[in-house]
């Protein structure tokens, strides 16, 4: 990991639930403040406090249904929090100040703040009626307002970076799962978000295709200033790429810390049980 | 007894009226296409009054006969200041009636788009309008074109009902010719054949279109 950390960990307090970072005069790129989410009677997230530093790579691990994906979706504005606030680069996401009062954000405000966040989905979600090139070009053209030439240039560069420059006139249906996901990564990356969410990017792939996608994500992580929220079951990958691991269970962050400690010295019983399933002895 | 001479005599007049039938069909279809899409979007709207109005309109129109709706537009509206010609009243009535059916077709097409498409569009920060224009409609409309084609043919066969509001299309023409000469056989046979030939050939074209779209 060549990305310089901009925060200092307080190792002693990793036992506590919640944010254990001591911020060193750098504003977090993402802040979840007392975030809860329920669907009717089912509470999926409970009072989450979390800061993500600019450029930090955070891996979310935990059993299915523990709330990791919901946490990511709240940031991507695909779901609305039941209570609590989210800030992105210092600006409130779901709320805005009108006449000095804090009210629910309107679509215009959401659109403005959402531009900082990108997402790669488990099932790719490529646009089937467009070629690969157009899939990657469409948002820069329509959302960022780039000219056709500029958008195409950026798109081709991005597709080269993920190793698919020779497939630009192909339609998604003609690609393998690994190739589709790489296109999806290029498509999200070309928008240059400050935070990128990867929601189980390899979970829907055949095992032999997983590697090519993880390699691309690792290369992206090594490159840049972009913060990453990685939801994954690939523990080796999380260990390699992440600056910090968050272990979720039943809507709470049970334990968090650097990969070395989390994987080698898990403190909580729940994390130990969870990790034991991944041991290949 | 069938008279070919008489048939040839009346044919030009019926073909002239065919122009009315065909143009009424296409104009009404255009109204239905636009109206149907507006209704579908209105029904999906987050703005409750609009959504409820659209739903109510659809239920009302589908639950009452086309003929009653046409009488209303042509005979009742003038009493409240809006007088329309038979053609205009006819295409509005026929068009609005079928817009409720086309609205269902659009709805089916739109709802068949996987939620992931909407989510990907949102993740890329497309505006709702851009999402509809670039992502959703281009995917949802081509699959429903064959069904729309079938509705076009249905509307074509429905045009005789417009004779009730004095629009002189081919059926009304045949009726007038018949009552004039007391010979109904040739007139109605011509009309029947015209409907048969045009409907059937159109349905063949729709089927060809379907095949072409599937192969893509």
UniProtKB/TrEMBL annotation, chain A:
Primary localization class, coarse: membrane
Keyword ATP-binding part of the UniProt annotation: yes
CDD domains xref list: ABC_HisP_GlnQ (cd03262)
Matches recorded under Gene3D superfamilies: P-loop containing nucleotide triphosphate hydrolases
Keyword presence, Transport: yes
GO cellular component, one term: plasma membrane
Top-level taxon of origin: Bacteria
Record-linked PROSITE patterns: ABC_TRANSPORTER_1 (PS00211), ABC_TRANSPORTER_2 (PS50893)
InterPro entries on file: AAA+_ATPase (IPR003593), ABC_ATPase_HisP-typ (IPR030679), ABC_transporter-like_ATP-bd (IPR003439), ABC_transporter-like_CS (IPR017871), Ectoine_EhuA (IPR014343), MetN_ABC_transporter-like (IPR050086), P-loop_NTPase (IPR027417)
Domain ABC transporter: 30-275
Signal peptide: none
A GO molecular function held by the record: ATP binding
NCBIfam families: ectoine_ehuA (TIGR03005)
Family that this chain belongs to: Belongs to the ABC transporter superfamily.
Descriptive protein name: Amino acid ABC transporter ATP-binding protein, PAAT family
Organism: Desulfosporosinus meridiei (strain ATCC BAA-275 / DSM 13257 / KCTC 12902 / NCIMB 13706 / S10)
From TrEMBL, chain B:
InterPro entries: AA_ABC_transptr_permease_3TM, ArtM/GltK/GlnP/TcyL/YhdX-like, Ectoine_EhuD, MetI-like, MetI-like_sf
Localisation per UniProt entry: Cell membrane
GO molecular function: transmembrane transporter activity
Gene Ontology CC, one term: ATP-binding cassette (ABC) transporter complex
Bilayer topology: Multi-pass membrane protein
GO biological process: amino acid transport
Keywords, sorted A to Z: Amino-acid transport, Cell membrane, Membrane, Transmembrane, Transmembrane helix, Transport
Transmembrane portions of the chain: 20-40, 184-206
Superkingdom of origin: Bacteria
Record domain ABC transmembrane type-1: where: 14-206
PROSITE patterns, per database record: ABC_TM1
PANTHER family given in the database record: L-CYSTINE TRANSPORT SYSTEM PERMEASE PROTEIN TCYL, MEMBRANE COMPONENT OF AMINO ACID ABC TRANSPORTER
Family: Belongs to the binding-protein-dependent transport system permease family.
Name assigned to this protein: Amino acid ABC transporter membrane protein 2, PAAT family
């Amino acid at each position: 990991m060549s990305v310089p950390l901009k925060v200092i960990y307080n190792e002693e307090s990793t036992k506590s639930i919640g944010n254990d970072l001591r911020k060193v005069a750098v504003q977090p790129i993402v802040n979840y403040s007392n975030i809860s989410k329920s669907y009717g009677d089912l509470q999926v997230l409970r009072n989450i406090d979390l800061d993500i530093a600019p450029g930090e790579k955070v891996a979310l691990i935990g059993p299915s249904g523990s709330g990791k994906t919901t946490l990511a979706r709240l940031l991507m504005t695909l779901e609305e929090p039941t209570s609590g606030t989210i800030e992105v680069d210092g600006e409130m996401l779901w709320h805005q100040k009108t006449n000095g009062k804090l009210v629910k954000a309107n679509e215009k405000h959401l659109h403005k703040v959402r531009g900082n966040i990108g997402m790669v989905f488990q099932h790719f979600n490529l646009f089937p009626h467009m070629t690969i090139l157009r899939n990657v070009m469409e948002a820069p053209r329509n959302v960022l307002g780039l000219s056709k030439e500029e958008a195409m240039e950026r798109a081709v560069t991005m597709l080269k970076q993920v190793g698919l420059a020779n497939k630009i006139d192909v339609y998604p249906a003609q690609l393998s799962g690994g190739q589709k996901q790489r296109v999806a990564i290029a498509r999200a990356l070309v928008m240059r978000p400050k935070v990128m969410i990867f929601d189980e990017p390899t979970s829907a792939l055949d095992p032999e295709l997983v590697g090519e996608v993880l390699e691309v994500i690792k290369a992206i992580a090594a490159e840049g200033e972009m913060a990453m929220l990685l939801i994954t079951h690939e523990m080796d990958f999380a260990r390699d790429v992440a600056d910090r691991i968050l272990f979720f269970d039943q809507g709470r962050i049970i334990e968090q810390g650097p990969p070395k400690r989390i994987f080698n010295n898990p403190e909580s019983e729940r994390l130990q049980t969870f990790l034991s399933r991944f041991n290949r002895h | 007894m069938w008279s070919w001479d008489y048939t040839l005599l009346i044919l030009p007049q019926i073909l002239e009226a065919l122009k009315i039938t065909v143009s009424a069909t296409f104009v009404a279809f255009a109204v239905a296409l636009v109206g149907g899409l507006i209704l579908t979007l209105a029904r999906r709207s987050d703005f409750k009054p609009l959504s409820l109005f659209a739903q109510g309109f659809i239920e009302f129109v589908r639950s009452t006969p086309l003929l009653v709706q046409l009488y209303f537009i042509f005979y009742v509206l003038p009493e409240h200041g809006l007088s329309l010609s038979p053609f205009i009243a006819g295409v509005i009535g026929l068009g609005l009636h079928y817009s409720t059916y086309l609205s269902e077709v659009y709805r089916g097409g739109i709802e068949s788009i996987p939620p992931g498409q909407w989510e990907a569009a949102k993740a890329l920060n497309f505006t709702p309008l851009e999402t509809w224009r670039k992502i959703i409609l281009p995917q949802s409309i081509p699959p429903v074109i064959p069904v729309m084609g079938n509705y076009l043919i249905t509307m074509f066969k429905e045009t005789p009902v417009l004779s009730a509001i004095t629009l002189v299309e081919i059926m009304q023409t045949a009726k007038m010719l018949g009552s004039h000469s007391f010979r109904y056989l040739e007139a109605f046979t011509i009309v029947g054949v015209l409907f048969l030939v045009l409907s059937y050939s159109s349905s063949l074209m729709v089927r060809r279109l379907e095949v072409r779209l599937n192969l893509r």
